[in-house]
Amino acid sequence: MLKRSAKISEFTHHSFVNFSMNRQISLPIKTLSVWRGPSAVNFIVEFNPILFLFSFLLSFFVFIFFLSFLRLFLSFFFVFFFLFRLFFLFIFSFFFRLFFLFRFSLFFLLSFFSLLYAPFFFLYGDPIFHYLLLCRFYFISFFVYFFFLNYVCFFHFAMSFYLFKFFLAVFLSF
């Protein structure tokens, strides 16, 4: 048993030595450096001050150009964002006024549609579940009526009404 383990260790030792010797002898140095990767032994980098100055100035000017381009892009973005915001506020305020005028009819219309869909819901499945579904339709109409239309639209309508009163007072003062 001792001889067998000695033979195995001798065999592995000789095979490792032979493999490393063959690898170093058979492969050329350039291939060996690429294969092992760059290291301080294979590649010696000398400091070149002219190349360093040129690369620093190039990176500095690229960074300045990037900052100016970013500033230009952000200024255009904010201008267009402001114009689009004005446009959408104008459109939405028009729709808010319409919703405020028809808020009672819209509430009853949603309630009517929920009652209209109720028989089709009760035809299938559990009636308790469909009763909850029906309550959900009422809750949606209730939510739209109280929170969305009553506060947001009333704010827009009241602001436009106060502006109308202001311009009317200015007009009547002449």
From TrEMBL:
Domain of life: Eukaryota
Organism lineage: Eukaryota, Metazoa, Spiralia, Lophotrochozoa, Mollusca
Annotated membrane topology: Multi-pass membrane protein
Subcellular location: Membrane
Chief location of this protein within or outside the cell: membrane
Spans through the membrane: 50-70, 77-100, 106-124, 131-148, 154-172
Signal peptide feature range: none
InterPro entries per UniProt: Marvel (IPR008253)
PROSITE patterns according to UniProt: MARVEL
Annotated protein name in UniProt: MARVEL domain-containing protein
Organism: Acanthosepion pharaonis
Record key words, sorted: Membrane, Transmembrane, Transmembrane helix
Residue ranges annotated for the MARVEL domain, each copy included: 43-174
GO-annotated cellular components: membrane
